[in-house]
Amino acid sequence: MKFSSVLMPVLFALATVPMALAQATPNYAPPKTSWGVPDLQGYFSKASLTTLTRAPGATSLIVSQEERDKLFNRNIYTRVAKEEAALSPAELLKDANPDRAYNRFWMDPGADLGKINGQYRSSWIVEPADGQIPFLKKPEEGISALASVDEEYADLPSNNPEERGNGERCVYHSSGGPPLQNQMYNNIVQVVQSPSHVMILTEQIHEARIIQIGATHGVVPKWGGDSIGRYEGNTLVVETTNFEPRQGGMISPKGKITERFTRANDGQLLYEFAIDDPSRYAQVWKAEMPLNVSEQPPYEYACHEGNYSMFNTLSGARAFEREGKKNGKRKAIFAGVAEAKE
Fold first, then answer.
1. pLDDT tens digits, one per residue of 281-290
2. Which of 149, 211, 285, 291 could form a disulfide with 227 if both were Cys (CB 3.0 to 4.6 A apart)?
3. Contact call for residues 157 and 165 (beta carbons, < 8 A)
């Protein structure tokens, strides 16, 4: 994602043009592999301004062109892109805003809301009908499957690197799934198939997820869970269980995620998932998202290259100790535990 800063106005102009995403082709017959299953291989992008949950102000799952325009212009990425398009290269590279981790120049979230069957979507969640995650209890009541960045890192001890968060240590990042999620950058995935396995490579932390075809679930917890796949007609169905308790994210060790990958046409995969986790959610909830063919391969995400943050974090903790201050409490939010540890 290294661009010349003089391209920023051009990038913004492109971002303001509705993206003509593919839609399902009637009676579409997907290509087959040499062993006779639907060929899902290639590079795909999940970049989109549509988010997992229903955008504020959206009236329904499917939105009109007029509603799309309102949501597009209200989107934070659109507004920041417009703001920075007016800056000179020198002003842009100066990046003097202390409240912004990155300026828009380095972000690649997508150019428009996502489309499925040629229709704009206000959320990926299709069930419940309100487009919201059906938490068993509200997040503020203490049982949330999702943690904010502040929750994940702010109160962690800093005695050694192993006490820090998974993403901070480049150990695991939930964007690679399951389930797959779009984000502000690193949205390319690669799908590779063999008769016995499917591999999904994601940019974020360069995770290679291995799905066994026709096998049985093991009993050992794994990062990203234990994924077993099967083909139902033109769809790859993947059931994942046995999640590593420390991975966090939106699933507990006892939950199950069922995913479906179907070629809508030559330019798009339809990705669907359902999460069944009674320990965290009031009901099974479902979502669907387009994965659009990308001409670009995954961009290397060198998580630790030139990373001095861990040294600074631990050094800061030692400085606090010299001042007589203590580490904060670690909130055991990921395991769904109410108590906190010293």
1. 999 999 999 9
2. 211
3. no
